[in-house]
Hints:
Layout: E1 2-4, E2 12-14, E3 20-23, E4 33-35, E5 39-45, E6 48-54, E7 58-61, H1 64-67, E8 76-86, E9 91-96, E10 105-109, E11 119-123, E12 129-134, E13 144-150, E14 155-159, E15 162-163, E16 180-185, E17 195-205, H2 211-225
Antiparallel strand pairs: 1-17, 2-3, 4-7, 5-6, 6-17, 7-16, 8-13, 8-17, 9-10, 9-16, 10-11, 11-12, 13-14, 14-15
Amino acid sequence: MLWVDPHDASTYTIDGSNNFTDLKNKVTGVSLTITSDPNLDPVAINGVPGIALDSTDWFTGSEAAVLAVGTNGAPWTVFTVLSGSGDFTRTYFGWGNSGAASANRFVLLTSGTGTGRWGAYGENSSSATTVFAEDTAAFDANPHILCWRYDGSNLSLIVDNVARTLSATAFAPGTLTPNRYALGVGPWSTLQQPWTAALGDHLVYNSVLSAAAITRVAQYLGAKYSITV
């Protein structure tokens, strides 16, 4: 399991400019790899600390327990607390390869090709985007608790503990050789968009959580970030 918690000061170290110099998985204590300069915003999401990401800020995790859920057909549940603004919401999280030109990459983003919808997308080595599933309703930039759940065949999206209607649910991320889990804003080619985001807690489970468990996590995060669920 991966748990990023910017509210827990024991899990990170920052410099004098509030840039993260160390950021750990709260569950295992293993440090994530930080690229560029994501920084701590002490009042990012409804007055609660969050990770401020801008342009090409990102970080990755390389733990086996996290990467196992990125393989084709393996189930997972992902929660992220998110708010943002700008022309394109290109914040993403997902599994991919090391960036080899011949291999595919899979990413989950908060919008697709400028449509302003939460969705699940794949990107190949030429930066061409495949839409697997999109929310049929537009998103907004207010803070939300997003929960993506994949049971090995079908994908579902739950926002603030309310199920959303997707354009499709059948989902096959393809055969990957995952060696990283990435979370950030636009470090990959066409994903470099003029957008900023604040991320709160981010949790990855290598299992399909029940509806009751999802409600418990959503209620915990809702109370933490003053988001109604």
